[in-house]
Amino acid sequence: MGLKTSPLRLEYENKVHELRSIPEKLGAEGFSEDQIARVMHEKRRELGRQYKEAAPPLFREYIYEATEAKYSDPLGPTYEMLREKKTCKQIIESASRPIKDLDNRLTLEAVKSFRQIQQLQRNIRAFIPVMKQRQPLQRIFLNMT
């Protein structure tokens, strides 16, 4: 089973598709295209946050770190970042369109690598205090010779 077919992912994608009805309603209420784009972006970010929080802990951690590495924000690109490359209309349209190539972007191998890196980081953090304790002993020994 790929990520795109997991029940949690399918539920998330359905919620993303449901966002399609919002722009027309907001437009009828007099919202500008920029205001609609901002609302859509915020709603999509909030959906992403909710479903990331519902993911299993290791996977959630991986998603947040991978997203932050790519966008400097664990929830994804900010509205301002998107506006640097997209029009308001493009932001509105993309807010209700799930990622197509998710299984290619979030692979089991990537999660395994992430887990190995985490373990290595824990080992390094555990080793640092040991090295700090040895340093004074090394200085004493060097001074004796």
Largest sheet features: none
What class, by secondary structure content?
A: mainly alpha
Order of helices and strands: HHHHHHHH
- Terminus-to-terminus distance: 64 Å
Determine the mean pLDDT. 83
Domain module tally: 2
Q: Low-confidence runs (pLDDT<50, min 5 residues)?
A: none
What percent of residues are in strands?
under 5%
What is the CA-atom radius of gyration, in angstroms?
23 Å
Give the number of helices: 8
Helix content class: over 70%
Shape verdict: elongated
The count of strands amounts to: 0
Could you explain how this protein is built, in words?
This protein has 145 residues and is mainly alpha-helical. The chain has eight helices and no strands. α1 runs antiparallel to α3 and α3 packs parallel to α6. It is elongated, with a radius of gyration of 23 Å.
